[in-house]
């Protein structure tokens, strides 16, 4: 699974999801704006959206001592779409209901299949449930050029893990090559 680096392709995906499956449109938006894992987002209920925050209970916390819920500020662009989506829902309802069972969350496998089909419909390859998280991280890096910010946002232990996870190898090499001191520039400046 890779990030969507081409913003036009991501817009195509969002347009497709908005038309064909509003539930998955909101699901992808939350992935994209929070960089949380699908397993953290699928169990969300309406009550977990509290005005300016989303309350997340991380599922993958094996290596973390703090396993409490986390309050994540809702990006202004996401807030409008979320409020519209939950407008006529009750607090106890799951945000991403499955068609099986009453008030049951969509399974990880079903979320994967729906997103995979949507991505293929708009000609995006190597897409999966982590792609929203990776896309968020990729664009944070491209906007800030700060690997440290991306690492902290993803809660990774090392920059190397972040580079590999997000697929930033080439971008980091390109940025680093600009920092190489240039003896040729020095010679040129001294000869003037």
Give keywords.
mainly alpha, hpI Integrase, Chain A, 192 residues, 10 helices, three-stranded antiparallel beta sheet, 3 strands, elongated
Model description:
- By secondary structure, the chain is mainly α.
- It has one domain (7-177): Intergrase catalytic core (hpI Integrase, Chain A), CATH 1.10.443.
- The chain is 54% helix and 5% strand.
- It has 10 helices and 3 strands.
- A 3-stranded antiparallel β-sheet has the order 1-2-3, with no helix packed on it.
- Helix 2 packs across helix 6 (131-144), helix 6 (131-144) runs antiparallel to helix 7 (147-154) and helix 7 crosses helix 8.
- The longest helix is centred in the N-terminal third of the chain and has 14 residues, at 7-20.
- It is elongated.
- The termini are far apart.
- The mean pLDDT is 89.
Q: Which whole number gives the mean pLDDT?
A: 89
Q: Which regions contain 5 or more consecutive residues with pLDDT less than 50?
A: none
Oligomeric state of this protein: single chain
Radius of gyration: 20 Å
Give me the CATH fold name: hpI Integrase, Chain A
Silhouette = elongated
Number of distinct helices: 10
Q: How many strands, what sense, and barrel or not for the largest sheet?
A: 3 strands, antiparallel
Share of helical residues: 40-55%
Q: What is the CATH class name?
A: Mainly Alpha
Strand line-up in the sheet with most strands: 1-2-3
The total number of structural domains is 1
Instruction: Return the CATH architecture.
Output: Orthogonal Bundle
Structural class: mainly alpha
């Amino acid at each position: 699974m890779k990030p969507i680096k081409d913003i036009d392709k991501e817009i195509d995906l969002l347009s497709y999801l908005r038309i064909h499956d509003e539930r998955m449109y909101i699901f992808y938006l939350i992935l994209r704006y929070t960089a949380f894992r699908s397993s953290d987002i699928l169990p969300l209920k309406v009550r977990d959206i509290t005005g300016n925050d989303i309350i997340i209970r991380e599922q993958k916390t094996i290596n973390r001592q703090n396993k409490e819920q986390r309050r994540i500020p809702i990006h202004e662009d996401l807030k409008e779409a979320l409020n519209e989506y939950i407008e006529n829902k009750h607090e106890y309802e799951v945000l991403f209901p499955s068609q099986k069972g009453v008030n049951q969350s969509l399974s990880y496998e079903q979320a994967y299949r729906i997103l995979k089909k949507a991505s293929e419909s708009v000609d995006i390859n190597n897409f999966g449930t982590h792609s929203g998280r990776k896309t968020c991280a990729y664009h944070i890096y491209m906007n800030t050029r700060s690997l440290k910010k991306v690492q902290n946002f993803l809660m990774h232990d090392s920059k190397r893990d972040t580079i590999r996870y997000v697929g930033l190898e080439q971008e980091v090499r390109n940025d680093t090559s600009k920092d190489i001191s240039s003896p040729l520039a020095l010679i040129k400046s001294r000869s003037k």
